[in-house]
What we know:
The protein is an alpha/beta fold. It has a domain at 5-110 and 174-208: Rossmann fold, CATH 3.40.50. The protein has nine helices and eight strands. The strands form two sheets. Strands 2-3-1-4-8 form a five-stranded parallel beta sheet, sandwiched between helices. β5 and β6 (131-133) form a beta hairpin. Bound molecules: adenosine monophosphate. Adenosine monophosphate (AMP) is lined by residues 12, 34-35, 38, 55-56, 59-62, 67, 85-86, 88, 92, 157, 166.
Amino acid sequence: MPSRRIVLLGPPGAGKGTQAKLIAEKTGLLHLSTGDVLRDEVARGTGLGRKAKEYMDRGDLVPDRLVIDMVSGRIAAVGGFILDGFPRTVPQAEALAATTAVELAINITLGKDEVVRRLSARRVCRRCGRIHNLLFDRPEDPSVCSSCGGELFQRDDDRAEVIENRYDVYTVATAPLVDFYRRRGVLREVDGSIGRDGLCARILELVSA
Ligand code: AMP
């Protein structure tokens, strides 16, 4: 029986966003990226966006209660989901567990040096949201999306000074979720260094098992 309530764990840059999009396309599950939702709130200048921006600019986590409220409303009525970037703290995981039982938590592993290398080279399409990487997915023109021709940009928090802090925040606040889900018997681990297509095939196997 395929899993329908899935969370992706792993350090920033491990490939959670790219993989969540691919898996959602192939399975029809709802893909929810809290980072994407927050960036949209910031871009629209909403109350939540204004509160979240200062944390995001530093590479810190947005306070739990803001993020938990934002996610609960979006997943309450759906049959299945793949969450990317949530939960990111133990209180967030506990809040999610109080609403719904996660069936599969996939931890995408990647070392710090590779995280820094990848994030520095990451570019995102302003129009379709596709994530490119100038190291191994380099579009012909490094400022133009190869899917839709939209403009590619570097996220503010993918700058070198913020990346270090994001990795440290991950280690302290988010890495404990690996044990949280291991204890619940739903954790699977995959090696994030094997490349996008290999990783997608491996994750699909886990989701379908
Ligand atoms: P991401 O796109 O997942 O790397 O998220 C970008 C930024 O959004 C993070 O560095 C945090 O500032 C914020 N953010 C995203 N998801 C969460 C979350 N679950 N809890 C707190 N902050 C978050």
